[in-house]
Design a protein that fits this description.
heterodimer; A: 290 residues; mainly alpha; MetI-like fold; two-stranded antiparallel ribbon; 2 strands; 74% helix; flat; B: 276 residues; 2 domains; 0% strand; transmembrane helix (chain A); Sugar ABC transporter permease (chain A); ABC_transporter_permease (chain A); membrane (chain A)
Chain lengths: 290, 276
């Protein structure tokens, strides 16, 4: 049992972390909320006026908003599909015994440690560039016309880049989960005559479900905020073809200096992320009880 | 008991796994190769690139032209600095939640986690204005602060899951033997907590090194870390493939090496202990 003395000490030790996070949570978010109700342009300082929900109205009613919203969803769903399905298959493969497991594991995980600006630029220039990129060289070698990925399929190209970065994450987590599978249970099932497929459906899949959910939720949180990859490859274009919500808010507030409109967009992004966060928090909270 | 696997099957799996591993790693391998080629050779067809001469020219050029060293040190200072401050704040907090849990500990942990769920863009405008008004734009000190705050929840959580694994009975035994709170922390807990703290530190340095939202928004040149420096190649300069490759290789090499040491911790840290 902890003594009263150690309780006080514990509270003191806890307070800096709590206070800092509280400030971090309240001050900037409160300011965003406040700005979102103002007409506030950085080019016209001192002209701020209260405009109610006007910023929200104009932000949502610009054509760019709906394309940004759908781009955000397509980006998140596209990357999730590739990484989750690819991750399951890859984890199942890497879980088999083979020569050089350690090395292959390292090769597969490596992209996750590459900083976003590097991976985006490498894909943009060395692979997707229509003149000197590797895909263009390959197309020419096959006698085909090189394809300009980033101007004709910008969103799909960005999905590919981001999926390359996140596939290792999904694979690593699912592999970790597979390796904690009860081997004895597997063997018992095998002795009782369960085939590979039956063991997969009735033992492996239920065991993986939780980890898959965790992968989906955590990736969604990060994927909703993809930014650097878009900034260095397409700048959101052509037009708004690869603008997601994060990029739109950035463009509106720091490129067009519209603080009010950008803030309204920021609040919308927070609401969107919170919908996902609630599910994720429930999952993790349950785990805390166990 | 290890299951017996036929050699044929093992060979097939080996081939498949190595091919896929190679394919996934290939973009990284390719920039490592291109970094050692001349600009003229780097844009040729892949086969011509492979058989052209090797050179260190691009590495010299990058160092000479672009203050590479300054950006590298900015990355080191930002990632290590923010990690150390976060650890200094989080270790006491995680310690007290793991060993002197109260009724609200679980709520507190969940709340800390929820701050990590806030998308950065939601506070972009006020942070930018605050940085501007306090003269913190393009300063290392401001960015260290932001990086500390965005990673603090992960650090607290990781430490908490590690500290939770230290059996409480040991502490009680120490208390029975008359150990004070101070000596309890110093002589009993610390030695047992060091591995967990080290893994947390490693993962957090990686996350801070690769952070590419705030570093891109709040720095331009003086305080710019490698993320921003590489992003500056996105304009016409990006067409210098060999230099871009050399700069990229130098930017990712330290983290690739650290990352290989921390695969296991990565899982625990990024899933907030939900998968171990």
């Amino acid at each position: 049992m902890a003594t009263a003395h150690s309780r006080t000490a514990a509270r003191l030790m806890l307070s800096p972390a709590v206070l800092l996070l509280l400030l971090w949570m309240i001050v900037p978010l409160g300011m965003t909320l406040y700005f979102s109700f103002l007409r506030y342009n950085l080019l016209m300082p001192g002209m701020e006026t209260f405009v109610g929900f006007d910023n929200y109205y104009y932000f949502v009613n610009q054509p760019a908003f709906w394309s940004a919203l759908s781009n955000t969803l397509v980006l998140v769903l596209g990357v999730l599909c590739i990484t989750v399905i690819g991750g399951i298959l890859l984890a199942l493969l890497l879980d088999q015994p083979f020569w050089g497991q350690g090395i292959v594991r390292v090769l597969v995980i490596a992209p996750f440690f590459v900083m976003p600006t590097v991976s985006a630029l490498v894909w943009k220039n060395m692979f997707m560039n229509p003149v000197n990129g590797m895909f263009a060289h390959a197309a020419k070698a096959l006698g085909l016309q090189p394809f300009d990925f980033l101007s004709h399929a910008p969103l799909a190209s960005i999905i590919l880049i981001v999926a390359w970065q996140w596939l290792p994450f999904a694979t690593l987590i699912l592999l970790t989960a597979l390796q904690s599978l009860d081997r004895e249970q597997q063997e018992a099932a095998e002795m009782d005559g369960a085939g590979w497929f039956q063991r997969f459906i009735y033992l492996t899949v239920p065991h993986l479900t939780r980890s898959i959910t965790v992968v989906i939720l955590i990736q969604t949180i990060f994927l909703l905020s993809v930014f650097a990859e878009i900034l260095v490859t397409t700048n959101g274009g052509p037009g708004t073809a690869s603008t997601n919500l994060t990029y739109l808010v950035y463009a509106q507030s720091l490129l067009n200096y519209d603080v009010g409109g950008g803030s309204a967009g920021g609040i919308i992004a927070v609401i969107l992320a919170n919908i996902v966060a609630i599910f994720l928090m429930r999952m993790i909270g349950k785990n805390l009880e166990a | 008991m290890a299951r017996k696997v036929s050699n044929t099957r093992k060979t097939v799996v080996t081939l498949a796994a190595w091919s896929i591993g190679f394919l996934i790693f290939f973009p990284i391998l390719w920039i490592i190769i291109l970094g050692f080629k001349s600009e003229g050779d780097a844009i040729k067809t892949p086969l011509q690139v492979l058989f052209s001469d090797w050179t260190l020219q691009s590495y010299h050029d990058v160092q000479a032209r672009s203050n590479y060293a300054r950006h590298f040190w900015n990355s080191v200072i930002l990632s290590v600095g923010s990690t150390m401050i976060a650890l200094a704040i989080a270790i006491p907090a995680a310690w007290s939640m793991a060993f002197v849990p109260g009724k609200r500990t679980k709520d507190l942990l969940m709340w800390m986690l929820s701050t990590k769920m806030m998308p950065a863009v939601g506070v972009l405008v006020p942070m930018y204005l605050l940085f501007r008004d306090f003269g913190l734009l393009d300063s290392r000190i401001g960015l260290v602060g932001v990086l500390t705050l965005i990673n603090l929840p992960i650090v607290v959580w990781m430490l908490y899951t590690y500290f939770k694994e230290i059996p409480g009975e040991i502490l009680e035994a120490a208390r029975m033997d008359g150990a004070s709170l101070r000596s309890e922390i110093l002589y009993v807990l610390t030695p047992m907590a060091v591995p967990g703290i080290a893994s947390t530190m490693l993962l957090n340095i990686i996350l801070a090194w690769n952070e590419a939202f705030w570093t891109l928004q709040l720095t331009t040149s003086q305080a710019a870390p490698l993320t921003q420096f590489i992003a500056s190649y996105s304009s016409p300069e990006g067409l210098f493939y060999a230099k871009l490759s050399a700069a990229s290789t130098m930017a990712i090499a330290p983290i690739l090496i650290l990352g290989w040491f921390s695969q296991k911790q990565l899982v625990r840290g990024l899933t907030f202990g939900a998968v171990k």
